[in-house]
Design a protein that fits this description.
Strand content of chain B: under 5%
Mean pLDDT of chain A: 94
Number of helices of chain B: 9
Number of strands of chain A: 0
Oligomer: heterodimer
Order of helices and strands of chain B: HHHHHHHHH
Distance between the termini of chain B: 40 Å
Helix content of chain A: over 70%
Helix content of chain B: over 70%
Low-confidence stretches of chain B: none
Number of strands of chain B: 0
Structural class of chain A: mainly alpha
Shape of chain B: flat
Shape of chain A: elongated
Distance between the termini of chain A: 83 Å
Number of helices of chain A: 11
Largest sheet of chain A: none
Radius of gyration of chain B: 20 Å
Chain lengths: 259, 232
């Protein structure tokens, strides 16, 4: 028997119902997000279906101790928290020492947060938004644009949560090695380039559709957008673009009404 | 003024997409291009909702819903913006002004929405603190209750925000539309131009640290401008 096959047979199986319950709960992992525990209670909420399999069930001391442990402070990207949930469920059911689990809970948030933020929030989400804006710019209707955005985004979103739960459960406390996956390591850089390219194509087309087919006005608006964006970029995010847009629109509206 | 019957479906939608921003299920139905189109559809004109949504999406591109940071809540806000434009953008004489004012209403609501999310997080912390003894004893009911309270609180927050914003901004929109003096072309150019600027700056901020990304942006812009010229 090969090493991979031996590893596969050594992985305990969770009943499908338990896996499904954990997976569904992952979508609400940030349900009680707060500035004290962050996503801690959500981790306990998501791991809980697996903990019921501990000796004594929901009334046993093992269950209560594990649930209390999992409800402590924890921070992670919400999608990649699935990795932690799978790994922590495995660690608790394997009977790992509480100190070992605590150390793991302390070490994991950093990598899960930074990888998730770069891959999803700064990569996949803007990529899908720009794809929808490109479709809008090319004349797509509301339902086609919505379908394109939601289907594309959620293939990545749901896939990442499912992968995270599976890989976390498979590797338990040794899950850090799985974070070396090429998609997680190289993905953000490739996505950043795709976002840059797509932004360049989609934004002028979206402006064209918003303004209408007036060559001079579209040309002036695209040029003005480029120049203003250069100014905003030089501020390095110190003044968010949405606040500048808000300020400009307020002044414009007041002038238009008062004139 | 909108009746409760008119407001209720929009409020429910505002609550659901408001939750989607953070608490459940983060499937990004809260993105402006989606939420405003849905708001527009409920108000009877999904295409107008999409137009308002695309404008808000350009402005919202830079917002990253990163953990503890404070950011605008675009979900409920986009329902407000989309519904307002769908409701008032049908009249060709006021269409461009209605777009400016609906987008403005959306951004203002997003700003207040961000504040309301912060308050909810503080309330969640208060609830967590109050039940910490039970949670530390491994009380399943306490863990579930915290989660359910947070989810319900977020739904109610989004609904109340949507109702209040629609109620206030619709009256302001009617007042402003009657007094609007700038022509439609200039109005559209201003709202599109500033939204495009915010989006381009966001694209730069998100990607400039990646090797060669700036060349992809410049190349993309060249391609985009050529496509615009072809389509004109």
């Amino acid at each position: 028997m090969s090493a991979a096959a031996r590893e596969r047979t050594a992985i305990p199986l969770l009943p499908l119902r338990t896996q499904a319950a954990m997976f569904v709960r992952l979508f609400a992992i940030q349900g009680s997000w707060n500035y004290e525990l962050l996503v801690g209670n959500g981790v306990a909420f998501s791991v809980e279906p697996a903990l019921r399999r501990l000796d004594g069930g929901v009334n046993g001391s093992a269950y209560r101790e594990a649930l209390a442990r999992q409800a402590r402070y924890f921070n992670a990207h919400p999608y990649l928290a699935a990795v932690a949930v799978g790994a922590l469920a495995r660690a608790e059911l394997d009977g790992n020492a509480p100190t070992q689990i605590e150390r793991f809970r302390t070490a994991l948030p950093g990598p899960l947060g930074s990888v998730g933020d770069r891959l999803v929030w700064a990569g996949w989400l803007p990529f899908c938004s720009l794809l929808a804006l490109l479709a809008f710019g090319l004349g797509a209707g509301p339902w086609a644009t919505l379908l394109l955005f939601l289907a594309t985004y959620n293939v990545g979103h749901i896939g990442l949560r499912a992968w995270g739960l599976r890989v976390g459960w498979r590797h338990g406390l040794r899950v850090a090695s799985a974070l070396g996956n090429p998609v997680l390591r190289q993905g953000p850089q490739h996505l950043a380039r795709a976002v840059a390219l797509l932004a360049g194509v989609a934004i002028p087309l979206a402006l064209l559709r918003l303004i209408g087919p007036d060559r001079n006005v579209v040309g002036t608006s695209v040029l003005a957008a480029m120049l203003i964006s250069l100014g905003l970029a030089r501020l390095h995010g110190r003044v968010p673009g949405w606040r500048v847009a808000f300020g400009v629109l307020v002044i414009f509206a007041l002038l238009s009404i008062a004139k | 003024m909108m009746s409760l019957i008119e407001l209720l479906p929009l409020a429910l939608l505002g609550g659901v997409v408001g939750m989607d921003v953070v608490t459940f299920p983060q499937a990004m139905i809260s993105r402006p291009i989606v939420a405003a189109s849905l708001g527009g559809a409920l108000a009877g004109d999904p295409l107008s909702g999409l137009v308002a949504g695309a404008t808000l999406e350009l402005i919202a591109l830079e917002t990253l819903p990163v953990g503890a940071s404070r950011y605008p809540e675009w979900g409920s806000a986009s329902v407000v913006g989309g519904a307002l434009f769908a409701d008032r953008g049908g009249d060709p004489t006021h269409q461009a002004a209605a777009l400016v004012l609906s987008v403005l209403a959306g951004v203002a609501t997003a700003w207040i929405g961000g504040w309301s999310m912060y308050q909810l997080r503080r309330l969640n912390a208060f609830w967590a603190h109050r039940s910490s003894d039970r949670v530390q004893r491994g009380d399943r009911g306490a863990v579930m209750s915290l989660q359910l309270r947070g989810l319900t609180g977020d739904l109610v927050r989004g609904m109340l925000l949507t109702i209040a914003a629609l109620w206030v901004t619709r009256a302001m929109l009617d007042f402003s539309l009657a007094r609007w003096t700038v022509d439609a072309t200039t109005s559209r150019a201003i709202v599109a131009g500033i939204s495009g600027a915010a989006a381009l700056a966001a694209a730069w901020t998100l990607t400039h640290v990646t090797t060669a990304a700036r060349w992809f942006l410049i190349g993309g812009l060249a391609l985009g401008v050529i496509l615009v010229l072809v389509m004109l």
